[in-house]
Write a structure and sequence with these properties.
- The complex is a heterodimer.
- Chain A contains ten helices and two strands; from the N terminus they run αααααββααααα.
- Chain A is mainly alpha-helical.
- Chain A has two domains: 179 residues, no CATH class; 66 residues, no CATH class.
- In chain A, strands 1-2 form a two-stranded antiparallel ribbon.
- The mean pLDDT of chain A is 83.
- In chain B, strands 1-2 form a two-stranded antiparallel ribbon.
- In chain B, helix 4 runs antiparallel to helix 5.
- Classes of the chains: A mainly alpha, B mainly alpha.
């Protein structure tokens, strides 16, 4: 993972990547209500055990993603890494698991059960990723953290998170500079494990010394846990309606998926 | 080695979230009882960021390269702060790079955080043991043990989603082979790396390794 990826990851997460400043209804949706609404859809779609129902949620996820006006390359770029694991499963499962053969060519069998399982996993993964990316792409990180706080997340964890992300970029730049210095001193491409340990140790020591200075400064400013995150304005009526409608949609589909087989359809 | 969203059934994901919430509550409760609880927050945040940056370094092992997990050494240095630190690190990975997922965050926290917490306890055994050679031995065990326990938990969770029509014995044997052969050398390397790192810190900044009374 190089410095450019880091920088892009951090700026996009914090909300300076341009996507969080859009003008779509999803962008204007209050973060707490958005988290509740999309969270319910996330949970309901994760509960699906049949791919036909998961595809219904995929349609809703696509609709919300389209409504958010986020560009296609944002989704494609961010789906690349997590997609690799699922891609491996989707390729191997239909060929290696199941009892009923759909197609056979020499020693290669295509199993019905494996194919159905692969479609379920792939569609569930794609749906959850679309919901997550839409939520993250339309909500600046400080607002998301404030929403999590309003839902009861510990202020200690939020402060820990904010301080970590604050110094992550500094430390990554520091690592890059130290790696370059090691190479310039004759390390070449093959660097002994002892040198890597010394590099990691130096970085930990720098971080520790910096943290002591930050701790003193924070105490002088009267720091208490929970003072670092933003507070959000109260939601409007339309925000509640949005959260209620999406939650009802998710729970309704979940109920339908559970009741449908019982009724014998 | 992150479990992505959609792979595990919802029940497993929610159980993971519940257990993670319990462990976070336990850790924060213990932290609040410390004499200066807020003093540990900047230290933990910066060390978490440092571990995050170091774990992104690819160590060249021709013809490939590997990334270290570092959960064992995190346990050694952060002690009781390690589980919240691992949770924050994993949440950052979800938000920044989509490694893992929001629903599988609980399971991933257990995979990385529980071994880190156990390694913190293991390193605490030096309280009753002579400094030489036990600090070196325990460092190595913590480094390797953290990786192997994480890998074991990862495959344990993977086996949970095995559909009924899979040949369970075959899957278990194949996965076990994969655990030992693919991750054994990485665990060994991480053990050596942890020994070297702890020795370096003991020489240069011994206060970074928590004192045992």
């Amino acid at each position: 993972m190089d410095g450019v990826q880091w920088r892009r990851g951090i700026t996009e997460s914090i909300g300076f990547g341009g996507y969080c400043r859009g003008t779509s209804p999803i962008h204007y949706w209050h973060p707490t209500c958005k988290l509740l609404g999309i969270g319910t859809l996330l949970l309901a779609s994760a509960a699906m055990t049949q791919w036909t129902w998961t595809l219904c949620f995929s349609g809703i996820a696509l609709g919300i993603a389209r409504l958010s006006q986020l560009p296609g390359h944002y989704f494609r770029r961010r789906a690349r890494y997590p997609g690799l694991f699922i891609f491996a499963i989707v390729i191997t499962a239909p060929l290696s698991m199941g009892r009923h053969t759909l197609f056979q060519w020499q020693q290669i069998h295509l199993y019905a059960e494996g194919l159905s399982w692969a479609i379920l996993i792939a569609s569930r993964f794609g749906t959850l990723l679309l919901f997550t990316l839409t939520l993250l792409g339309t909500t600046p990180l400080p607002h998301l953290l404030a929403a999590l706080r309003s839902l009861g997340l510990s202020p200690w964890l939020l402060d820990l998170f904010l301080l970590t992300i604050r110094y992550l970029q500094d430390l990554n730049d520091c690592v890059q500079a130290m790696k370059t210095a090691m190479r310039l001193r004759g390390g070449g491409r093959q660097i002994h494990l002892r040198h890597w340990a010394a590099l990691a140790g130096s970085l930990l020591i720098r971080s520790y010394e910096k943290s002591e200075r930050i701790d003193r400064a924070m105490r002088l400013r009267g720091y208490q846990a929970g003072l670092l995150y933003e507070t959000l304005p109260p939601p409007q009526t339309a925000d509640y309606w949005g959260a209620g409608a999406t939650a009802l949609l998710g729970l309704g589909l979940l109920l339908a998926a559970k009741v449908y087989p019982i009724l014998g359809f | 080695m992150h479990v992505p969203d959609g792979f595990l059934p919802l029940e497993v994901g929610l159980t993971g979230q519940g257990l993670t919430a319990g462990l976070l509550w336990f850790s924060l409760d213990r932290i609040r009882r410390l004499p200066q609880p807020t003093a540990g927050i900047p230290k933990t945040a910066l060390l978490t960021a440092a571990f995050f940056a170091v774990s992104a370094i690819a160590l060249p092992i021709p013809p490939t390269s590997i990334h270290l997990l570092l959960n064992g050494v995190m346990g050694i240095i952060l002690g009781i702060y390690v589980f919240p630190a691992v949770w924050v690190g994993l949440l950052l990975q979800v938000l920044m790079f989509q490694h893992g997922g929001l629903l599988s965050l609980g399971v991933n926290s257990l995979i990385y955080g529980v071994p880190a917490l156990l390694m913190a306890l293991l390193f605490h055994l030096r309280r009753w043991l002579p400094e030489r050679p036990w600090v070196t031995v325990l460092s190595g065990l913590c480094g390797s043990g953290g990786v192997m326990l994480s890998v074991g938990l990862f495959y344990g969770f993977t086996l949970m989603v095995t559909p009924d029509y899979w040949d369970e014995v075959l899957v278990r044997d194949e996965l076990w082979r994969l655990v030992v052969w693919a991750h054994g050398p990485v665990a060994l390397m991480e053990g050596v790396f942890t020994i070297l790192l702890v020795q370096f810190l003991q020489r240069v900044k011994p206060e970074l390794i928590p004192t045992v009374r």
